[in-house]
Amino acid sequence: MSNRPPIRAKARRLTSLLGMCLVCLAAGWGRSPWAQATEGASPVVLDRVVAVVNRQAILDTDIDDEIRLSVLDPGRAGQGVLTHRRAIEQLISRALIEQQIRREDAQSSEPQQAEVDARLADIRKEVPACVRQNCASDTGWKLFLANHGLTPERVDAYLRYRLEILRFIEQRFRQGIRITPQEIETYYHDTLVPQYAAGEAIPPLEKVSPRLEEILLQQKVNLLFDEWLTNLRKQGDVEILDPALETNEAPVAGAGEGK
Q1: Collapsing DSSP states into helix, strand and coil, what is residue 242?
Q2: Dist CA 63 CA 69 (whole Å)
C-alpha cells in the first residue's frame, strides 16, 4: 500500500508553503548581502494567499482590488462599502465560473472591445458615484479613477470578465426557457397591479407583457444559475485560509450584476 499523502493534503501544504514564501520573501528570508546590512528594517508582507479554489490562489490584494472596483457596480447602489467577507465570496464564485468557462468554451463567451467600450460609456453616465464626479467628461473620469486607485486598463479588464460571465450565463441557462401567457397574466395581476395605488393609471396587460416576460425569464435564469453555482462550489475544492473571512453567506455571482 502506498504511503503517499492524499492529493488534497499535498495541495493544502503547497498552498501554505506558497503563502509562507510570499511572507518570507518580504520578511527578508534568503536575503542578499545588501539586504542583510539592514537588520533593523521591519519585515513587510508583500501579499498572502487567503483562499484557494481548485488550486487557484486568491490573494489578499485581490480582495482590496475587488473592493475598489465595486464602485463601478450599479447593483451596489445604496448598499455601502463592500465588506471583505462579501468580496471573498464574490471572488470564489467568479473563480469557479471562470474555471467552468475555460472548460466549456472560452472563446464563445469572450466579449468584443466594442461591447466593453459601450458598457464603460453606460457606467460613466449611470453609476451614481460616477455621475456625482461628472465621469462623462474625460477630466471627471480621470479624477474618478485617481480617487479610487483605479487605472483605465484595470477597469477595462474588470468590465471584460463581467461581460464574459454575463454572456456565459445567458448562453448556458437562458436557452430553452419558455414563459407561458398564463405566467405573464398571473404576474401582472398578483405582482404588478398591487404596486399601484388606488386611482393610479395601471398600464394594460398587452402593453407591459414583453417586459413582464423578460422579468419572469430572468427570474428562472437566476434560479437555475444559483443552483448550478451552489453545486459547483460543493463539488469543487474551496478552502478559505483566513478564518476572519469565513462566512455562511450563500454563493454570489462574481460578476456583481451578473444575474
Answers
A1: coil
A2: 10
Residue with cell 467568479: 94
Is 28 strand, coil or helix? coil
Bridge partners of 51?
58, 240
How sure is the predictor about 29, in pLDDT bands with cuts at 50, 70 and 90? Answer: very low
Side-chain-side CA neighbours of residue 48 (13 Å):
12
Report how far residue 152's alpha carbon sits from residue 55's, in angstroms, rounded to the nearest whole number.
30
Residue in 47, 61, 62, 48 with CA at minimum distance from that of residue 95? 62
- Residue-wise pLDDT for 199-208, tens only, equals 888 899 999 9
- What domains appear along the chain, each with residue ranges and CATH number? 65-73+86-238 (1.10.4030)
Q: How far apart are CA 76 and CA 65, in angstroms?
A: 16
